Amino acid sequence: MILMAKFLGIVLLIYVLLGLYIYLAQNRLLYLPQNYPLEHAITTAREKGLALWPTQDTQYQGLLSETPTEPAHGTVLFFHGNAGSAMGRTYYAQTLNTLGYHVILLEYPAYGAKAGSLGESSLVASGAEAVHQAHQQFSTPLYLVAESLGTGVACAVARDTQTLIQGLLLITPWDTLPDMAQQRYPMFPTRWLVKDQYNNIDNLRQFGHPVGILMAGQDSVIPNSHTKNFIKQLDSNHQVWTFPDVGHTDWISAVNIQWWQQAMAYIAGGSQLTQ
Questions:
Q1: CB within 8 Å of 104: residues ≥ 6 apart
Q2: Domain boundaries, the chain
Q3: Domain 31-269 maps to which CATH number in 3.40.50.720, 3.40.640.10, 3.90.930.50, 3.40.50.1820?
Q4: Which of the two ends of the chain, N or C, has the fewest CB atoms closer than 10 A to its terminal CB?
Q5: Per-residue pLDDT tens for 137-183?
Q6: What pTM, to 2 d.p., does this model score?
Q7: 3-class secondary structure for the chain?
């Protein structure tokens, strides 16, 4: 009986310690930034045909890629996923430039060479400021495009700046971060341990512009159930493209320039399309 009590005590202690680790280390589990010096950011951006925007210091908001054809159809602010940095997302700039858009690959605080701290409030505040700055600088319509973690940042930014933007394209979005975390760690009360909420449902509750959504059928990072729950509760006019044979990171192989053209046309006009 005493041995059993000791055993249960050890199990409980391990359980509590693991739960404490999840709580204390959640930023390290959620955010995986790539960092480099400012000079490296400036040089590498130039080599890729980009420029730090709107300043050339650690307060920069992102990497600007301007379409060579004027006038542009609009300006796209892109929110990347949780790993790496904006510098690794040149695919989006190249693709959307081809379609006639200016593109700003937004950088998060504490990512790349950008100063700041990690966390939902910090990332969302930075993104909202970037929208206001882009609105002042560019006379073209503004669109938000986001992938993975970036969909959570973009939805919160869209909530705060919806009068300045015309549409939203979300690649592999979810419903709420606590619900996702609870499914990932079901043995703990994870929902109550998560500090960053990224509640995409609430953030788009009153959103009045078209929302395009890409769902990867084999997504093992963001289960389809969370994407479907998000879609189910959307009030906005929306269009969903489902690619059943691709996952969270290889969905790019399933789309082409025609899809991008269709998706951007949808969030610009909001006319319902045949999936």
A1: 53, 61, 62, 63, 64, 65, 75, 76, 77, 78, 130, 134
A2: 31-269
A3: 3.40.50.1820
A4: N
A5: 998 899 999 999 999 999 999 999 999 999 999 999 999 999 998 88
A6: 0.92
A7: CHHHHHHHHHHHHHHHHHHHHHHHCHHHHHCEECECCHHHHHHHHHHCCCEEECCCCCCCCEEEECCCCCCCCEEEEEECCCEECHHHCHHHHHHHHHCCEEEEEECCCCCECCCCCCCHHHHHHHHHHHHHHHHHHCCCCEEEEEECHHHHHHHHHHHHHCCCCCEEEEECCCCCHHHHHHHHCCCCCHHHCCCCCCCHHHHCCCCCCCEEEEEECCCCCCCHHHHHHHHHCCCCCEEEEEECCCCCCCHHHHCCHHHHHHHHHHHHHCCCCCC
Residue 261 token pair: 């053209």
Quote the tokens at residue 25.
Answer: 């280390």
